[in-house]
Amino acid sequence: MESKESMSTASDLDVSVFEDEMAMNSIEEAFLTSDTGQNLTMLWSVLENATLDMSYSGDFAFQRAISVLHVYVLPIIILIGILGNTVSFLVYVGTPRLCRQSSSMYLAFLAAVDNVSLVSVFVVWFGWVGIHIFHKNGWCQTILYCMYVCSFLSVWTVVSFTCERWIVVFHPLKRHRLCTRKRAIVVMSTLTISALAFYTFSVFTTRVQYANDLPFCSQSPEYKSVLQVISSIDTMCTVILPSLAIVVMNTGIGIKTCRYTNRRSNSPPHASQNSIDEMFSNYSSHRNSETRPAPGTTSALSAASHSRVLVTATNRNTSRQWRFFTRRQQTQLRITRALLIVSSVFVLLNLPSYAFRIHAFVITIRQEAYEISFQAFIWQEFIQFLYYINQSSNFFLYCACSRNFRFALKRLFCRFKSRLLKLRHMSWRGALHNMFAK
Length: 438
Known about the structure:
Blueprint: H1 2-32, H2 35-44, E1 50-53, H3 61-94, H4 96-99, H5 102-125, H6 139-170, H7 175-178, H8 181-198, H9 201-204, E2 206-211, E3 214-219, H10 224-266, H11 271-290, H12 298-366, E4 370-373, H13 374-392, H14 394-401, H15 403-437
Parallel strand pairs: 1-4
Antiparallel strand pairs: 2-3
Helix pairs in contact: 2-13, 3-5, 3-13, 3-14, 3-15, 5-6, 5-8, 6-8, 6-10, 6-12, 10-12, 11-12, 12-13, 12-14
Subcellular location: Membrane
Domain G-protein coupled receptors family 1 profile: 84-398
Region (Disordered): 284-303
């Protein structure tokens, strides 16, 4: 009996060891043929004294979970993100009420950039199921170039509409001059041209290499000194500077918005409107009293009547102007809150990935020897999921935070449904016409 138990225990141990070895081999192969191997090879290939330690002794449950997430969960995230970004783009571009706003142009551009990035990641994902499209010359350079450009455009688009909200909140008199649709198009065009020009180096410094008879896309070692400088510039431009700018501006916008909301909630209702009405009434009375005729004359009575009519008309115009002003102010406040949430979520979901890049950047500056553990690569792979979720979750943020987006989405859906019913009706009419014509 004891021998059977010992044999079963030994067999269980052999099975577990065999499963761990299979998991390790599959993870190593997936690492060399996946986006994590690519991202971190790019990240640390520029370090002079970096070494990679592929040995890891421990429980492989986490590695198996990462493999399952990549094989089954990642494509779902990508497809949901592509669908959501496409709908967001159509809502912001195809709705007349929204497409006139400069913030809508930024959000539509962000949706298009995120879609290009998700398609690139989807091409890389095929390596996890044995289809190595990414690790071929041509595909390797193109996908890397798109990832570089999209990473730059994504973060600086967020900085752009955050800067626009800063102007709206702190310099409202300059909003009509600086926060226009035309200026937003100029900013997006400038960012795109700059990114396309700067990241052309990736086309010439990348090639397919082999490790353990497995192809993988990586930086060419002969360009290491040049890539050190470029990687430092890229980290400053896409991580450090935009993150600091977003955090500082969001903090100021949040404090200002909270103060404004508290001031409105603590003030008595219609207090501001009454004060403006009183100001206009006093001003009109003062103007009329300067040219008022002597009492008892006919002209004096007509002037008094004219003064009362003028004050009443002024009060009505003031009330209309105040309602229009407060309505427009509330619209800008809602837009500011929605964009504040979008930019804050962007920073929070990208913060772990940025921490890895800043760590590598510091090591590059200090020129120290650095040993990269395989466990660090596995954790980076998990952290990358937050980056993909950020690119796929903007549609849900818009639905949750923007009333205008929900209204425009509903109208777009109703318009699409009516056109679909019209096409179906026309197809039935055509079929019946052909049937009776025969």
